[in-house]
Amino acid sequence: MPLGTALGDDGIAVVTMDYPPVNALPVAAWFALADALSGVGPDVRVVVLRAEGRGFNAGVDIKEMQRTEGFSALLGANKGCFAAFKAVYECPVPVVAAVHGFCLGGGVGLVGNCDAVVAADDAYFGVPEVDRGALGAATHLARLVPQHLMRTLYFTGRTIPASALVQFGSVVETVPRDRLDEAALGLAREIAAKDPRVIRAAKEALNGIDPVDVNRSYRFEQGFTFELNLAGVADERRDAFVGDGKAPR
């Protein structure tokens, strides 16, 4: 199953993405992910967001976008990403990300809106949108690194290892790949052991005091993506990406 949810007796719901070969999510998958996180029931205390395969998430499926006539896939990806990022942020319980391998573009959008991040020691993060003729996820990258570093990473398309994010506190810890699920579940259990009524209230309260409205901020970024598409720039850059056959390392 490309997207699966398993709920344990401890109240921890594990949501797993599995879209080979690189977890570049098609339009339908972004909406499915949004539905999974929006549909959290009263018996859920914590959500762990993880992935199978080579890496956590490689963003949107650009090949789907380029083989679709018109702008339906582009609009779908924009709406789907917005819905998924929003669902992570507004999930009524804390969301713990378990990141391995690459976390790029839309993956940063998901992780940046999570409440806690645990990463494998092979994990790295980046937003290659500039190289694709698009904008977006700077809102979420800014939740992982300081402002000037965010701008450097954004303008250059460079990646940053998870180990470097530990010093900023945006990644709780890095562990060997084979211990990632154990570490993420350990943190989730620590949260799940608290009174769920208090934790749910705390999640809502912390969102309420955030200095940046992440939903509105990301939507603002998306407007520039539409401008670049109307100008023909984005299509040109996506064609070059598909033609080069580039993929996360």
TrEMBL record:
Q: Which Pfam families match?
A: ECH_1
One of the record's GO molecular function terms:
lyase activity
In which domain of life is the source organism classified? Bacteria
Keyword Nucleotide-binding found: no
* Gene3D superfamilies the record matches: 2-enoyl-CoA Hydratase, Chain A, domain 1
Q: Name one GO biological process term.
A: fatty acid beta-oxidation
Which keywords does UniProt give here? Lipid metabolism, Lyase
Q: Which InterPro entries match?
A: ClpP/crotonase-like_dom_sf, Enoyl-CoA_hydra/iso
Write out the similarity annotation: Belongs to the enoyl-CoA hydratase/isomerase family.
What is this protein's record name? Answer: Enoyl-CoA hydratase family protein
Its organism's taxonomic lineage begins at: Bacteria, Bacillati, Actinomycetota, Actinomycetes, Cryptosporangiales
